[in-house]
What we know:
Layout: H1 2-24, E1 42-44, E2 49-60, E3 63-72, E4 79-86, E5 94-95, E6 101-103, E7 108-110, E8 124-126, E9 134-141, E10 146-155, H2 173-176
Parallel strand pairs: 2-10
Antiparallel strand pairs: 1-2, 2-3, 3-7, 3-8, 4-6, 4-9, 5-8, 9-10
Amino acid sequence: MQLRRSARLLTAAGALLLAAPVLSSCGFNYATDRPYTPGAGTNDQDGDVDVLSAVVVSAEDGSGTLITTFSNNSEKDSATVTAIAGAGDDTALTIGDFDPIEIAPGAYVNLAGDDSPTADAPITVEGDFTTGQFMTLEFTFGDGTSTTLDVPSVADCYEYAGLDATAETGTPAEECVPEASEVEH
Length: 185
């Protein structure tokens, strides 16, 4: 009788020991398992074309330039961005005309810089918005799919300096420096 009790106790202790890691875990969907890109821009990686770090760079309220990167996830077929428009509460936004943006298979297109397909005619955004405000934009692709994102308007300071094609002059450097009350000590 004593031997059966010891065997049961030993079996129960072994099962508890094996179950301890499972019972003490934090669960699934850890924050460290999810994609995270620190930065001001908005990302969408749910479709065949990723929209990465989308921002509207603005030197003054009411106008700005769309800066983003489009990444084609297909290794065989090219993709195209055919339209960008205001959506939701921001349907009144005016998006400047642009030629469809071709994205080679497995490649990306960055709208910032001299080698951008929109370098000569950047995609402008005009409407009732202020720097720091989010606006809803809908991106439509050549295959008929679209994605809607809340895109922030950022000042043309620091890494965004000089990227707002709608401004005659950029934001003065002294306006880019946070005030002493905003700096954490």
